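can u do me a favor
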């Protein structure tokens, strides 16, 4: 509610309640425009992987500036974060597979700051683990989806980035490796009990239409 409306409403409140509101005058109220801006600062990433023997490989794509990154984009109204991440994986890398419903990691992506006067915006990114079953033609043809072993993926994510941000992305790979290994151990031990981890099938939501796709990185 706008602060001016709040003030008018207080004048009609009983004395005791009015005092309570006045004691809370230091509370911060966000305008609708600011809430919309903050919502745009939320993104999702698909950390796509496959297992080859004892090795774990990660699928990275390139940004317009040639940096390697996870398939990612903005959170979408009407979709869960996992569903939005699944669409990004399908559109940017042609991924068909299983996306873990719960986010396993979060990191902050700096945006802007290309000139001395530009403002750097920090964007919160929720990372979701995706087991790739197969690859098809991506809808975005200039992303160059490529498989990297874990150690090389860490290096590619650090390349041409500020040290702090590059280290954050490399830690996402570390957390993914640990989670994948734990999931494989649990799968081997859960022969007689159902798995509690929830996955979504990318094939079931890939036909969702989008009004547009933003390039990020």
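np, heres the sequence
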């Amino acid at each position: 509610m706008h602060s001016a409306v709040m003030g008018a409403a207080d004048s009609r409140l009983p004395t005791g309640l009015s005092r309570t509101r006045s004691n809370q005058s230091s509370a911060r109220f966000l305008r609708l425009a600011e809430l919309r801006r903050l919502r745009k600062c939320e993104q999702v990433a698909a950390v796509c992987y496959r297992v080859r023997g004892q090795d774990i490989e990660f699928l990275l794509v390139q940004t317009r500036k040639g940096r390697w990154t996870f398939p990612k984009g903005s959170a979408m109204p009407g979709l869960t974060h996992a569903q939005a991440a699944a669409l990004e994986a399908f559109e940017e890398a042609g991924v068909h597979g299983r996306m873990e419903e719960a986010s396993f990691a979060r990191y902050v992506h700096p945006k802007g700051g290309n000139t001395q006067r530009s403002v750097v915006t920090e964007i919160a990114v929720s990372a979701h683990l995706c087991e790739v079953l197969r690859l098809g033609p991506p809808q975005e043809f200039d992303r160059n989806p490529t498989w990297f072993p874990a150690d090389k993926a860490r290096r590619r994510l650090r390349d041409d980035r500020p040290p702090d941000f590059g280290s954050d992305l490399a830690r996402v790979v570390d957390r993914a490796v640990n989670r994948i290994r734990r999931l494989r151990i649990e799968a081997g031990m859960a022969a007689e009990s159902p798995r509690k981890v929830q996955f979504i099938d990318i094939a079931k939501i890939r036909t969702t239409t989008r009004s547009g796709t933003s390039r990020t990185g």
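Confidence is low (pLDDT under 50) at residues 1-28, 209-216. hope that helps!!
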